[in-house]
Amino acid sequence: MNVAIYKEVQFDASHRLLHYKGKCANLHGHRWKVEVWMEGEPDATTGILLDYNVIREIIERFDHQILLNADDPMAACIGQFQRVITTTGDPTSELIAVLIRDELHKYCRAKKNKATVTTIRVWESPTCYAELNTLDAPAGIRNEGF
């Protein structure tokens, strides 16, 4: 029997887009909202596909963090004073969706859990989001500091 679950998590974090010409090239913050849909076969004993707290804990790794491209010279400067999550490529909402998907899948495989992320939405503001439908998305974009 396959089931589907949904979880919404919010976090606060700052980022900047190194390769973007415009306001987002400046360090700035957002109240991010992440929506995750997962499907699969629930555990035979518990009847649970995946504990909602696991999803929350993985996403909250971004909470109150600075997200920067690993090539960004700001990463080394700020890193002298506090932790910086660095990514391969600019930390866009699109890339954050891929990173969260990869971390959830990594957790599930390590626990021999049969859950798979089907869709992730990463809201950068109340009016815009990036949506990743994982059947169409490339796997394996890795980040350095997550």
**Largest sheet: spatial strand order:** 4-3-1-2-5-6
- Determine the CATH superfamily: 6-pyruvoyl tetrahydropterin synthase/QueD
The unreliable regions are 140-144
Gyration radius (Cα, Å) is: 16 Å
Number of strands: 6
Helix/strand order: EEHEHEHEE
Summing up helix and strand content along with how strands pair, one would put the structural category as alpha/beta
Helix content: 10-25%
Q: Mind telling me the CATH class?
A: Alpha Beta
Domain count: 1
The percent range for strand residues is 35-45%
Mean pLDDT: 93
Q: Determine the number of helices (DSSP H or I, runs of at least 4 residues).
A: 3
Which descriptor suits the 3D outline?
elongated
Using the coordinates shown, work out and report the CATH topology.
Tetrahydropterin Synthase, Chain A
Euclidean distance between termini CA atoms: 33 Å
Biggest sheet, in brief? 6 strands, mixed
- CATH architecture title: 2-Layer Sandwich
